[in-house]
Amino acid sequence: MAFDYREMVKEATETGQPVTRVRQLVCHDNIPASVAGKTIDTTATVVPSHDHSQKPPFDVLDYARRWKLPPSHTLHTVSANKKDHPFEITPKKVAEIVQQLDRSGIPACMMDSQQAAFYVSLVGYEFTSLNGWTKIRIIRAVGGNDADAKFWQSHSRLEDFLPWVVKKLNRGPVISALVLGKLMCLKPEFCYSAFPEATQQRAQYSKEAQVEDATPKGIVVGAINFKRLHMDIQRDLDDSIMQAVCHYSDGKNDIFALAVRVTGEQGKDSLKIGMKASVAHLLSRDMIVRHPKASVLICVDIKVAISFRDAAREGHVFERTGVIVSGFAGGEETPKGLLLSDVAGHSVTIVSTPGQKGWDGVDLLIKRCLENGATDVNVYPWPIVQGGVPDISSYKPEMQDNVLAKTTNLDTLELPSQLVARIRREAIPIEDMASWKKNVLLLEKAPICIEGEQSCQTDFEIVTFEMLPDVVPREDDVPVAVRQMFTPQYTTLIWGASNAGKSWLGIELATSLTTGTPYLYFTASAPCTLCYLDGEVGSDFKPRVNQLLQGREEFLPLLNKNLFVISAKGGLNILDGETQKILIGKLQKSGVKCIVIDNLLSLAPTASKSNSTPFFDFIHRIEKLGIGVIVLHHAGKTGKDFKGPVDLASLCQNVIHLEGRDQLEKEISKDDEGNDEPLSQDLTEALEGDGPVVRMTIEKCKIAPELERRKMVYKLPVGGIWEFVEGEMPTPTRKSSDSPIVEGTPKNFPVDSTPLPPDAQKLLDTMNKGQSYSRSDLEKITGFTTKKTLNVLKSLLEINRVSQKGEGKSTYYFKS
């Protein structure tokens, strides 16, 4: 069967109208021609159907060759008015798309590797569903020829087709998939994000119209099979299906994709992912509007929202409690454009995601609910999860067990109506949120530092002079204790040349702080917990600690309990935002009071080369959590200065310079008349032996300025412990039997006997041995404000002069 297609195409192009032939020029096997086979339509403005069963009524390429037509006449739809065409599939269009992607880069949502892999697979799924005519147009547009078009009509698997497109476009798989998606009107943003509704663009549908589910039931994402577990249908207020949230999972990872209703042929609309923008509506919006007095639960976590809604439907929660379980899809930015006018007149309870980030994220949602007329807004404080356990690293250590006990896992939920009742009962009014976060559950938030940006402290307070903490001046003849020098209020920089003994002295300091023993010149303080961030020593760390602990073996139980180690040799950048978040969470969870960073060059290389501000922003975040910071750093090439900008020293309160064997052996001392003088006998003998020899010079010391420019030399014999060689400050042996002893500490260990500040001494004197006091009791007795009382109690708790029992309003204190 054949028609005069050349004349038909010419006539259709000139008139802009479809052309149909009734007379058959040739007929084989007495097969009548179909209407489609007798029609040429060059005015089509609708994308051809993606029905798998539809095939081209004739071999287009065969007719092109037979009638010697240019490929453009058969493979491209020629519109009488190109401006009205929804999209075009031409080589020129492909070139424009590639140029645009080269200039702007991939969309932000494609930065997530899992989302990018899902989109690539979705492009393949949609391509295989195209009819043959559209496939040919795409193949020709990306640079294929007639043979390619014939081949790929019968071989349309993406794992084969996409590599071919990559070669044709000379671009990577993601860019190539984006080009194909653009030709099919498939946008990655529409897959994952919801947008504010534009009234003028709102389509009208009939609720009787048939809507086909055209979303994949399963999809391969990065060689892993993801199965669609849920499809949460969303209806408009006229009860017509509008969109859906599709939940895909491989058992460990989850993907939530948004499907929207698109218009098809012959009244058969379908739900497709990525073809159209999803509207930012609340789930169960139709129920919320139909029941104006119902209470509404808004789950911020979409995984929790979908699972909770399923359980609520099965358990008839609305019929039993009058509460509608809702939520929203579309990512973290959705609350900004979420249509919330539907909650006007409703009582709203927000179920946040666990942790600091989740709580900080509900502020905007609360504000917008109130602005849109919600009668009241409360927040449920305890975690609700769907499988797994919540991240509790941002909760106070004393609250973490309670948080886990209060966590609800929807996988094991039996009575959803009881959970709804508990949420409503235990939800916190918004006016109590700030105090609840600060005093009960969450640790104080520290702003995230981004490298290259200037920091800005916003959580400051204004206080009267009376409220300032009292500080007792330190007497010059009283030796400095370890925790006076290395305190959370100060940052200490210890720097020196390679092989000067920095790590050895850093490990000795960690051992002293965690066991409550002296450190070289500095007297002992009560033991504390410490984290050693090791980017230098590696597998030798434990043998070095065991060597330095010789003679102090009875302190091993304290060391085992108080010393934490993060082995980071080989790569860890503490200036990375995500790394900082994880690191601070682990420090908080471990309850450490001090951290040693060994060393700056390995763990924060940019801070030692250019701008140190981002590094110190990070340090200040740690200090705000009550953690002291000690940084080990390398000297420059000359050995006379440290690497990096000079503000490294100006931003530290303590600076200690170490010179090792290599520097000391080259040194020639001078007598008073300027003549060469040999090194002292003690130093000469130390240099003749094996093992590190270190001269420590205190270049800056805020707690004891009289120590500045003082020098001490120590040696570490092979397999031995540190020994004093010479210097202006010998190692003290003072002990104090009347200082507080921490539980588990061996008897007669040396501790700090520095006098208490007046406020601390006053509060301690008011407490009788064996009697307990509440905070309010102590405020009445001392006359202190609440804040001062809490600060003084905290300082006394840290040195174990006061003990604490209970929690919340039942907390009481007594003398240790």
TrEMBL record:
<feature type="region of interest" description="Disordered">
    <location>
        <begin position="729"/>
        <end position="756"/>
    </location>
</feature>
<dbReference type="InterPro" id="IPR027417">
    <property type="entry name" value="P-loop_NTPase"/>
</dbReference>
<dbReference type="Pfam" id="PF13481">
    <property type="entry name" value="AAA_25"/>
</dbReference>
<protein>
    <submittedName>
        <fullName>Putative AAA ATPase</fullName>
    </submittedName>
</protein>
<feature type="domain" description="AAA+ ATPase">
    <location>
        <begin position="488"/>
        <end position="661"/>
    </location>
</feature>
<dbReference type="InterPro" id="IPR003593">
    <property type="entry name" value="AAA+_ATPase"/>
</dbReference>
